[in-house]
Amino acid sequence: MPILIFFLAHWFLSLFSQTFFYHRYASHAAFTMSWGWERFFYIFSFITQGSSYMSPHAYGVMHRMHHAYTDTEKDPHSPKFTKNIYEMMMRTNKIYLGIYKGTLTVDEKFTKNVPDWPAFDKWAITWTSSIRFFNAG
Ligand SMILES: [Zn+2]
Question: Cα(3) to centroid of ligand 1, in Å?
Answer without folding.
Answer: 32
